[in-house]
Amino acid sequence: MFKLIKGAKINDSIELKEEYEVADRWIYANISAENIRKVIDKFIEIEDGNRFCLFIELPSNRKDENIVGVTEEGYYQADSLHIDVYYLDNISADYLIELLNLFDDILVNDGLSSFGVLSQSGREIGKYKYNVIKAYSNDDLSPIVEVFTALDIPETYELVTAWNYFSYDDPGESKIYNLEGKTIYDVVDTLKEVGMYKAEQRVE
């Protein structure tokens, strides 16, 4: 059974399955929560010999947004929302695995943020909202295809993700994941101590 990450909620009637689709230089996939780390680890294994960058994308602080109103439910309304992108550059595969072992529960299960790995080869892979995996190569996609093949994840020519089911009346829900009082923001603060830095802020 396909397991959604803990920081996401969708209509119980939605049935998702693990599969991937190739689109030009990109691969898009649905991956069950318990297998997200396996996909990332397999990518690192196949890219071994390269240096890596761990990236985390998370919603910008409210003070950085142009708040234009507040709903009746108390939610702030902004004219546009932004994402802060953080990098931890030039790290080895072993060190990257060590960091993932420390923080993967929050990285995988947080519903508001995304994370992933950039390889010196020009290839990358990341986990995004609602269990979507996105991967990119600036030339050869075959090593990334090998990641999914090795894990017996089938290819499709018409990927259906949770996003295909959402509507105004039936949206999904993404929320921050709290593990023993720690959140993705605490993970970023901890990683700043070993060199993670804010690379950019962009419109969501």
Please outline what is shown here.
The chain is an alpha+beta fold. The protein is built from four helices and twelve strands. The longest helix has 17 residues, at 93-109.
Give an overview of the whole structure.
With 204 residues, the chain is of the alpha+beta class. 24% of the residues lie in helices and 31% in strands. The strands form 3 sheets. The protein has an 8-stranded antiparallel β-sheet, with helices on one face. Strands 1-11 form a two-stranded antiparallel sheet. A two-stranded antiparallel sheet has the order 5-6. Strand 9 (123-127) and strand 10 (132-137) form a beta hairpin. The longest helix has 17 residues, at 93-109. The chain is globular, with a radius of gyration of 17 Å. The mean pLDDT is 90.
Please render the helix and strand layout as text.
Blueprint: E1 8-9, E2 19-23, E3 26-30, H1 33-46, E4 52-59, E5 67-70, E6 76-78, E7 82-91, H2 93-109, E8 114-119, E9 123-127, E10 132-137, H3 142-150, E11 173-174, H4 184-192, E12 197-203
